Amino acid sequence: MPKKLSTSLLILFLSVQVGINHQIVKAQTPASTVPTTTLKTICPAQLGAAVDTIINRSEFSRARWGVLVQNLGSTETLYSRDAQKYFIPASNTKLLTTAAALTELGANYRIRTSVYRDGDRLRVVGRGDPSLTDAQLTTLAKQFKQKGINEIKHLMVDDNYFQGDIVNPSWQWEDLQSGDGTPINSLIVDQNSFSFIVSPQTSGKPLKVIWLNSEQKKQWQIINQSVTVEKNQPSFIKVNRELEGSVLRIKGQLPEGSQSQFVNLPVFAPAEYFLQRFRSVLAAEKITVKQASVLDSNSKNEIEELAFIQSPPLSELVMTANQDSNNFYTEALLRALAIKKPATKNQSTADVGLEVLKSTLTQLGVEPTSYVLADGSGLSRKNLISPQALVQTLQGMAQSSQAEVFRASLPVAGMSGTLKNRLVDTPATGIVQAKTGTLGGVVTLSGYVNAPGYNPVVFSMMVNQTEQPARVVRQAMDEILVMLAQLQRC
């Protein structure tokens, strides 16, 4: 059987709210935050009272805050609140996964996709390269050409390198219909997502649908119930689809003259999708395929490697995972960790990766009981991490051989990644490097601050069970970061 979502998912009819999204996997890029603090400098002894003043505001009376601030390279604590308690971490989970991946695999590690010759058959073996696109598939096809292959009697794609569910069973339904919860398998192309664009026309007309892949256009029947409205009207797009079927229903509206919107949807039979895309690339290179199939069992008959492609080095994959808060890349890296430990019978690749992650972080100095993980990206609400675990991870990585690569992968306040629009034109601009995290009722932020007048510090701030909009919590966190950036020795 090809790897698809479980049968229970296939009978459901779900809807997804789609917003402006220029990436296959949504990055957490909030609106600009301008802290209101008027302090110019702050002494370490004043920090506790100043942070408490922010956390104890009435709007946070029902929220849970966990905060830990330490001097980098020591256990000297500048501020602590519930630092040893569990919180839902959202994408701060990626700090643990990427730290373990860099430590175990090294910055130069690459994920290899191989093609083996087996008599008259060619077998493509994927190993979970999240960066693979048509451009890399074209490279493979050209390697065939260079070896004089113009016809393939039987093309097989082997999707069995990763074992277990291709989506985490604890992910929420709506995530499975968006770019956040895309299935993870061994054979990947374009992050297992397909896209189209909806554009406004003149008022009263339906939105125009523009496909980015002509082959995908052939596979879907569009029922377009959207409309172009007059200028200054609100924008919203909703796409309904059956998880098994070929109908997409587009509803919603865009104002006349407004920007087009990208709609990204996950592939639900990724191995078949990979095969279809590879066949299209081979056809473009004038290579004929007589027969093609997806292998339903793992084959060890790797007689001759005919061709291969490799991912960028792990340093670049980790950069994408942390800078863009890319769930897909991070889940692929979690599974890549599994090569460090043999799997037992019926054990999923993701579970093996989590075991390697825990043993690796323990060696880095992270208390193994200070966190519990269900996935590698933070999409699951079953993840539980303490501020202590995040600070210990950051402290351990700062002392490791991968310190520079790890630090470079984090967004920089006011400059890059998911912090590009935060802390702009504040004392924290350019000196805070941190990982964001957001789910409903959850806002987290952990990283480093290089205060010009003080020692470098490491911090973790986690807020759970808040009814406040995320922007309100981020505003408060950013005020605290501005204070950390203005620490002085006094």
TrEMBL record:
It holds the Pfam family Peptidase_S13. GO terms for molecular function: serine-type carboxypeptidase activity. The keyword Hydrolase applies. One of its GO terms (biological process) is peptidoglycan metabolic process. InterPro entries: Beta-lactam/transpept-like, Peptidase_S13. The keyword DNA-binding does not apply. Keywords: Carboxypeptidase, Hydrolase, Protease. Belongs to the peptidase S13 family. This is D-alanyl-D-alanine carboxypeptidase.
